[in-house]
Amino acid sequence: xxxxxxxxxxxxxxxxxxxxxxxxxxxxxxxxxxxxxxxxxxxxxxxxxxxxxxxxxxxxxxxxxxxxxxxxxxxxxxxxxxxxxxxxxxxxxxx
Length: 95
What we know:
Elements: H1 2-17, H2 27-30, E1 47-53, E2 59-64, E3 69-72, H3 77-94
Antiparallel strand pairs: 1-2, 2-3
């Protein structure tokens, strides 16, 4: 019985990381998507990049200088500030 439960958990984990096949084309299958959102405020200095996501939940995925991806709700005020700061850094690098 224990072995059967492990299989179910394994399947659920895979479903929670990847979008459903065909939901947004095959390219999205390679990308990790946000399912659960962190409510913790991150240090803006450690954030180097971000991606916007609408499926399966509306979220911003921040990428830290160490390559860690953290999903947060786009509605939080600090998230909007962090996005502006990252955009400013990107604009400065592009000049």
